[in-house]
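Reopening: structure tokens for the zinc ion complex, inputs below.
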Amino acid sequence: MGSEAEIVKAPAPPRLAGFARRAAGLALDLLYPPLCLHCETAVAAPDALCPRCFSLLRPISAPFCPVLGLPFEVPLGPEARSAEAIADPPPFDRARSAVLYNEVARKLVSRLKYGDRPELARLCARLMHGAGRELWAGDPVLVPVPLHRTRLFERRYNQSAELARALGRLAGLRVEPGLVRRTRPTRRQVGLSADARQRNVAGAFAVPAEAALRLGGRRVVIVDDVVTTGSTVKAVTRALNRAGIGNVDVISFARVVTGADLP
Ligand SMILES: [Zn+2]
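Re-run output (same inputs, fresh job):
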């Protein structure tokens, strides 16, 4: 920092800059009114759904299984776990999801995956931030489920990493997109049975040996777009465990719940 820095023109005073930004925003809104991210009717604010589309989302709220985050029909008490969590305890501590995977959630996720709409990630992250509120205490690190680099190359876009970045900004949490690597390409999980899904992703992830040191004992929250059987997030958790990271939670935008309003 020498004399050069001093002769750089001073930036506009913050109040004026804020005014200019608001005026520019207003002009843009008149030219391009914000549209519902699902049906594209005009909405009042950007990065939002219209009231009708929003009402079609099915948020997952209490009562739910404290381990898997699966909704319960009726309250069963704070300690009650789902039959799935008892029969097959997952390697992670807690999983939470913002919404049930229904028709609207499916469309949002597919546009998040194949589109180039960063505002969709912001909308999903806002809902995930609320659904995962128990997970943010203690300053955990957000780790997105990685794509294999061949698929990343085809798609140029990892939706889980975009969700993690948007969530990190909202919650003020560190994001470590490179912490988990996919060591081999896996088949798409769509259409595979639960067993086949598990075999497909077993051992497909690796975490560098120095990762635990880098995190200094902090918890990890794995970020994914959709959790179906949970085989992917379980495989990622096991890779973290092998690297000495023992405290792992999971947050996803949508959750497939069998029998509940599936498309
Ligand atoms: Zn709409």
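The longest helix spans residues 14-31. Residues 36, 38-39, 41, 49-50, 52-53 surround zinc ion (CB under 6 Å). Marking as resolved unless the reporter disagrees.
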